[in-house]
Amino acid sequence: MIVTLNKQSGRVLSILRIITGLLFLAHGTQKILSFPAPPEWEVTAFSMPWIAGIMELFGGALIVLGLFTRPVAFLLSGLMASAYFIAHAPQSFYPILNGGDAAILYCFVFLYFVFSGPGRWSFDTKIGRE
Hints:
7 helices
């Protein structure tokens, strides 16, 4: 059974990357494009939420495609770590109370991609970067 599961790990890693990228991309579309709904706060050009939105939009798209996965994931992991400590941690020590549990999860999933790579289904693999 372990051998069978191990054979599928590259595909499942790709699925995790694609789903994570799509969910992350949605945060960027909300901040930058006001889609599917406008953000709860005003996002002005060159503000911290705007910069985060740009990184979420383009970084999420690159993660979905599996293009430049490791460096993009490194930047996005840092973005999520800083988002947690700037926006969430000051509200409460506990992530479930400060709303930062998603930021922590994204931070560590992106950090995992830095070390694991994009998986089998990616542009990085197709062009020989992996």
